[in-house]
Amino acid sequence: MDNRGFQQGSLNSFRSSSSDEDLMDIPGTAMDFSMRDDVPPLDGEIEGKDKSYNGGGIGSSNRMMDFLEEPIPGVGTYDDFNTIDWVREKSRDRDRHREITNKSKESTWALIHSVSDAFSGWLLMLLIGLLSGSLAGLIDISAHWMTDLKEGICTEGFWFNHEHCCWNSEHVTFEDRDKCPEWNSWSQLIISTDEGAFAYIVNYFMYVLWALLFAFLAVSLVKVFAPYACGSGIPEIKTILSGFIIRGYLGKWTLIIKTITLVLAVSSGLSLGKEGPLVHVACCCGNILCHCFNKYRKNEAKRREVTTHGLNSLSFGESLSGTTLGMRIWGLYVSYYFPLKTLWRSFFAALVAAFTLRSINPFGNSRLVLFYVEFHTPWHLFELVPFILLGIFGGLWGALFIRTNIAWCRKRKTTQLGKYPVIEVLVVTAITAILAFPNEYTRMSTSELISELFNDCGLLDSSKLCDYENRFNTSKGGELPDRPAGVGVYSAMWQLALTLILKIVITIFTFGMKIPSGLFIPSMAVGAIAGRLLGVGMEQLAYYHHDWAIFNSWCSQGADCITPGLYAMVGAAACLGGVTRMTVSLVVIMFELTGGLEYIVPLMAAAMTSKWVADALGREGIYDAHIRLNGYPFLEAKEEFAHKTLAMDVMKPRRNDPLLTVLTQDSMTVEDVETVISETTYSGFPVVVSRESQRLVGFVLRRDLIISIENARKKQDGVVSTSIIYFTEHSPPMPPYTPPTLKLRNILDLSPFTVTDLTPMEIVVDIFRKLGLRQCLVTHNGRLLGIITKKDVLKHIAQMANQDPDSILFN
């Protein structure tokens, strides 16, 4: 139970850290138990209630004082960077629910309170869906406008992006629908022309300048106001859902700054996406709104259910995929407590968010997803070969990206590079912008690039990717046949190849910087480019060699055989699966993009192949790797523990170590307990009958001890250092004129989880995973021997895997 960061000296410090609204400050100050009668009460509420205690004369009373008859603020809460006790939290919630149910039979008001308590969960889901859906629409619209701002501005209204500016123009043709007199490039505004080398230089300079400005604002806001707003947030969300506490990570300042800086980061043109950070934004919405309801605000386990609802509501802006991704993260990765009702409430929150997003219509296509496409040509069995090749490419790319990105992030953490986040962001942004502007496929936003790569070319498409010869000849049914590639297609292939190289390299250095940065969109872009290149190659091969044995049975001349857009979509799924190791939820997400069941088999083949290949080169996905890099206490549920070790091999104390620090149930004074607390850094202590017997009574948390003692000292001047602390139900008679004793039985956990010293560690690991334990006591014939914490389990697993056990930094 090592907790070296926790040595606060006053109850106010506990209370200030008990809310997710503030960052945790961990000073290295020593504790001070020197309380005096003139110390002010805990807060205004206690001061108002307990004025009668000031100067009271209970010091001469011999009765036992129980200061926990009413709840004390701070008792039952947890320190920052510690793990919650799931069993304790769920038990408290059951007791609360049982009390409300029993009281509901006594009066009408109590019945109304019971009904409102049951309905509050659904009301909270409604609020989460509305808030998260609105923020998603706002982010999408703002990012689109600011991305276009790098290239020009609309003279009819500066708040219009390029597409909206030209919608109502009367001077635009279908072929040049992106060009209208209402939209002016920066060279047109500055030097009144858009032609020539100087105009190109002006546009180039303004593009780089806007990108640097957006990136500078993003990293500055994150650094000054909300350091937790950087990154994608998914590794931390996974860890928080497993029971870990990171104060401020889901607070209001993180939500505000992440929403603003996410727009700035995406608009800067960096190789990052907004889908991962949107998960963080939605979880912040759930955590903040849960403070409006007592049953969620006061229970850490219930609050994590709400966080899951927020995650599900907006993972991908659509109810089915959102719930699927939430189930993936919550159900498969975090198998602690997942009641079935959470699934239905998550679905309801996702439904509300999808309705809100549909009402806002941020994509301008009346769809809930950005890359909605429809393919009309069925795939052939032979095409599984190139689809599997794309899966292999996705697995190789995923393994390569994870290793190189983790190596770079570790270098950032261990060298001087990490001390200059602003300079790093500006340098990467400058390199990205300078290399991106000359190539139209790197200059456009990554979302637009993926949308164009997914597109199935039609007669009216004017893109270079659709520049085929004889493009206006149609076949039966009005479908376009496979055609020979024109000059535009070959030019686009070269540009896409250069884009692929740039995306592969620059994404490695971009993900993990101190700005909001998602990985879904860049990974999909890499796979979509590779898939489109392979798809066009297969299309031309089938056109020129349709008489080959592999084609002649299903691809005749003049038929529409190959769909390059489908290859792009399969490639996107393969690369995303290789990086994140998602399978089921990934296929569902990609299935929604096509609007049909016909292409699920290619997606499944590519997703499974990429996962197999990536797992062969490294077992961890990108988020698991970042969790291990940061030292978070996340116990992976999908990994088997196959080593033949026992609980006695892992518990503390080990042989030749000092004896386990314990408290006795009825023989220690307040001064003795304060001495134990000040001389140790453990976050909890076993309570035994006596030091000689070592018979276990229960377990008490360090935080609850400190708060209870300080509260007793402030409320009663009769409690002094020589007062005896009792953890028993009754105390023996005391001699006259002795200080009143202090009863702290209410903060004692009377049913701590115990195992024997010969219990196999594979059973202990399963217990920690499935019950979400913080610690487990080890006994032998009923006598207390030691303790195993979650941190001890993680260190032992790392040691057995030949990894550095000291990489686990938190409890």
From TrEMBL:
InterPro entries linked: CBS_dom, CBS_dom_sf, Cl-channel_core, Cl_channel-5, ClC
CDD domains the UniProt entry points to: CBS_pair_voltage-gated_CLC_euk_bac (cd04591), ClC_3_like (cd03684)
Keyword Zinc: no
Gene Ontology process terms (BP): endocytosis; renal system process
Record's catalysed reaction(s): 2 chloride(in) + H(+)(out) = 2 chloride(out) + H(+)(in)
Topology relative to the membrane: Multi-pass membrane protein
Localization (cell): Cell membrane; Endosome membrane; Golgi apparatus membrane; Membrane
A molecular-function term among this protein's GO annotations: identical protein binding
Transmembrane segments: 119-139, 204-229, 342-360, 380-402, 422-439, 492-512, 519-538, 566-591
Predominant cellular place of this UniProt entry's protein: membrane
Keyword DNA damage: no
Highest taxon listed in the record's lineage: Eukaryota
Chain intervals with Polar residues compositional bias: 1-17
GO cellular component, one term: cytosol
CBS domain location: 651-715, 747-807
PROSITE patterns: CBS
Keyword tags: Antiport, ATP-binding, CBS domain, Cell membrane, Chloride, Endosome, Golgi apparatus, Ion transport, Membrane, Nucleotide-binding, Repeat, Transmembrane, Transmembrane helix, Transport, Ubl conjugation
Region Disordered: start-end pairs: 1-22
Subunit structure: Interacts with NEDD4 and NEDD4L.
Entry function: Proton-coupled chloride transporter. Functions as antiport system and exchanges chloride ions against protons. Important for normal acidification of the endosome lumen. May play an important role in renal tubular function. The CLC channel family contains both chloride channels and proton-coupled anion transporters that exchange chloride or another anion for protons. The absence of conserved gating glutamate residues is typical for family members that function as channels.
Membership in a protein family: Belongs to the chloride channel (TC 2.A.49) family. ClC-5/CLCN5 subfamily.
Protein name per Swiss-Prot or TrEMBL: Chloride channel protein
